[in-house]
Design brief:
mainly beta, Lipoxygenase-1, six-stranded mixed β-sheet, six-stranded antiparallel β-sheet, 3 helices, 12 strands, globular
């Protein structure tokens, strides 16, 4: 079991797992059973430069663009139902092949077609993000999002970031009522 983080908390991954070269970042969630509405959440990753914006649009990783140019960030598949135990969607990050300009990787989830369906994160429960050492499948860090996000349609769950030679993970839990487009705009993605 990894370190359980609170919002804003961080952990040095390279100190927790010396020799760490690749992580799997799992995002999970369940639909609230009270509404009965079916919906699809999509995990995405944004590869950012030191400026805080994406290196380029090629670093907006999601179900239609699953790999960064050098393959350091890879989305491992779209789960359209969120059903079943464990991670619903996973993004692999190869820290050893991350280019020098890649300063951080931001992980988010958005509700697909939220504008039409009216679904918000208020109808999502048990949302979490976790970081796993790909070498031995040991969980290094976990953040359970417990806040009620009644109007948000997208949420930044957490981020991996460089701190000198180390890689760290920070729990964020920042909701956006402007959906994926709002997050993309804040991080410099041209949609």
């Amino acid at each position: 079991m990894g370190i359980s983080l609170v919002k804003g908390g961080n952990l040095s991954l390279t100190k927790a797992a010396p020799g760490l070269t690749k992580v799997l970042v799992g995002l999970g969630w369940d639909a609230r059973t009270t509404t009965g509405d079916k919906f699809d959440l999509d995990a995405s990753a944004l590869g950012c430069a030191a400026s805080g914006t994406v290196v380029s649009n090629d670093y907006f990783i999601f179900f239609n663009q699953t790999r960064s140019p050098e393959g350091a960030i890879e989305h491992l598949g779209d789960n359209r139902t969120g059903e079943g135990a464990g991670d619903d969607e996973v993004v692999a990050v190869d820290l050893s092949s991350a280019p020098a300009q890649l300063d951080k990787v931001v992980f988010l989830a958005s509700i697909y077609d939220a504008e039409t369906t009216g679904i918000t994160f208020g109808q999502v429960r048990n949302a979490y993000i976790r970081v796993v050492n790909a070498a031995d499948n040991s969980e290094l860090a976990r953040y359970d999002l417990s806040e009620d996000a009644s109007i948000e349609t997208a949420m930044v769950f957490g981020e991996l970031y460089r701190n000198g030679a180390d890689w760290k993970f920070r729990a964020i839990g920042q909701g956006y009522s402007s959906g994926l487009a709002g997050i993309a705009k804040d991080y410099g993605v041209n949609l």
